[in-house]
Amino acid sequence: MGRNSMSIDVEKRAGVPPLQPTVVAASTTPSIHAPEKDDIRPVIKHKFSFAESNVVGFGSTNAAEGTRESFGVMYERLWNLKALLRWARHFVPVAALLAVPVALFATVFADRRADGVRLLGLFVWLEVLWGSLWTTKLVAMLMPTFWVFATGVVNSGVRKYHTVVRMIEKALAVMFWVIVAYASVIPVCMAFDASTVPVPDWLRTLQRVCLASIAVGAMVLVERLIVQIININYSEKQFAGRIKDSKRRIAMLDALYVQSTRLHEPFCERFAQDDYTILTGIVDKKESSQLLTNLRFAGREVAQMFGQMTSDITGASLFNTQAAHTIVTEALEATTSSEALARRIWHSFVPIGGEALTQADLERAFPPQHVHDVDELFGLLDVDRNGDVSLDEMILTVVRLGQDRISIWKSTHDLKAAVRILDRFLQLCVLVGTALVYGAFFSTSFSSYLATVGTQLAAISFAISGTVQEFLGSCIFIFVKHPFDIGDRVRIDGHELIVERISLLYSVFRTVETAKTMQVPNINLNSLWVENISRSGAMKERVTVQVSADTSFDDIDQLRLGVESALRQPENRRDFKHEAEVELVSIGDMSKLELYVEAEHKVRLTPSTTPGRETE
């Protein structure tokens, strides 16, 4: 790729909130398209509040933006209306088909009866049943809105469960539908007969079918409700905070990358190799095929073209491969491109010959009215809070940000897999319950066989009691206790382990010492102490020292001062806080004193670091 073949800028667009930086990488070739709204970037909350025009210094003056946004809004409304049109497409043909026998039995075959009941009522009931199916579906769609309104009046704390109501929409629609079917079967079918006509047996049987279906629908609704509550509550408890923090940090990294490209345009002589690695993940251009490189960039241009076409129609940004947020997130997926991204940002702000990035360097690069924003940006990079950021620290911070993002994705993927297994098990239970319900409603001798069936089930449950215990114990361990996530470093039974995979019945670990992979049943982990180092925050290092019994307290205090002096040395000050603690533990047999010397890390351990030396 030639020099200066692309540029990064920030455009202010119609409809973009002022607190959301919209970052786009645009080709230097002229474009006839108006800039589109980039919806894929996360909204930056808290006090970090860069505006597009303030970062870049100019805004968009394209008058076509409002027109395209208006067309986009109109298209979105029409697209939402297509759901009703799609329903009508399914409803009308069947309704018209059912209307044919209704018309025939109302006119030509008006005297046709079944056990004294006119068949007209049966087909009218089928027509009502078909219409009520779509009516209850519409009611179920409106239930989340009604839930938010009703709970907002009573207790706003439970409004968050509207997502659960939305996820069980189909089960609610089926439940309402069978209730309407049960309530309307006899009144509608008997509506065209005299009140003295007795209800025939086949109509009673049809009513029992509807009643049994209500019981089955209730079981399905409860099963879906349990699964969705577990899914929503667990996801909110475990990942909502991590995902929000990850999006916020990536958004700040977007701002740093954009400002870096403002200071030094992409593929300039100084950063040509790093920019190439950021986009391709290839460290050395000479080692890659020129044909493959051209195909890769051609694919990005094609995707960008289709994304531009979609943006012109809908007003939403899709397949925007030249968006700076897309470039950053794709770079975070690989270690080589993450390191190149870190090097580019660090060298862009650090003066030539400098050894560390300081907050003053960022303040010189950003507008002075955003001092508080620069302070938070520097806080993202200065994890050890020592006032400067070395190149190694910058690389480790960016790489760790990408690793955390991948770990969150893997953890949520494994969670969905575990919930899916639980869902299938509960569906099997519902299937067995359905057979029992219909058997109880339609078999007169079912109650006599119920005792025999119960005895057989008890024998089977006794035979598989170990499996059932393992399944239930694993569910409690995963969905209730959940002591670790993928990527966490844990200590279990004296072993240092890295969590590689979490399944419903087992977990996969990698040992820190030998990098061996081991699989452990969750039922065994359920009864063990789990020390989660990754969740522990900044940890302490403790060393036991034995000194002579005649050592004075002044000498012990001098020991503490000596340790604190060692912690302030350049090789230690980035890793440890400057304060140390010396504690007298015991005097043993009066011949020596046992002391604890403690030093606290500035940041938490990463999965790849070992206790005793922090490398983040």
Describe the structure concisely for a colleague.
This protein is an alpha+beta fold and 616 residues long. The protein is built from 19 helices and 14 strands. The strands form five sheets. A five-stranded antiparallel sheet has the order 10-9-8-7-11. Strands 12-14-13 form a three-stranded antiparallel sheet, with helices on one face. The protein has a two-stranded antiparallel sheet with strand order 1-2.
List descriptors.
616 residues; SH3 type barrels; elongated; alpha+beta; disordered N terminus; 58% helix; 14 strands
Describe, in plain words, how this protein is organized in 3D.
Residues 1-70 and 608-616 have low confidence and may be disordered. Helix 2 runs antiparallel to helix 3, helix 3 packs across helix 5 and helix 7 (240-263) runs antiparallel to helix 14 (391-442). This protein has a five-stranded antiparallel β-sheet with strand order 10-9-8-7-11. A three-stranded antiparallel β-sheet has the order 12-14-13, with helices on one face. 58% of the residues lie in helices and 12% in strands. It folds into four domains: 6-64 and 242-399, no CATH class; 75-239, no CATH class; 443-532, Roll (SH3 type barrels); 540-601, Dna Ligase, domain 1, CATH 3.30.1490.300. The chain is an alpha+beta fold. The protein is built from 19 helices and 14 strands.
Topology, element by element:
Blueprint: E1 6-10, E2 23-27, H1 52-56, H2 64-106, E3 113-114, E4 117-118, H3 119-154, H4 162-167, H5 169-189, H6 201-238, H7 240-263, H8 272-280, H9 290-314, H10 324-331, H11 335-349, E5 357-358, H12 359-365, H13 371-381, E6 388-389, H14 391-442, H15 446-463, H16 465-481, E7 489-492, E8 495-502, E9 506-511, E10 517-521, H17 522-525, E11 530-532, E12 540-548, H18 553-567, H19 570-573, E13 576-586, E14 592-601
Antiparallel strand pairs: 1-2, 3-4, 5-6, 7-8, 7-11, 8-9, 9-10, 12-14, 13-14
Helix pairs in contact: 2-3, 2-9, 3-5, 5-6, 6-14, 7-10, 7-11, 7-14, 8-11, 11-14
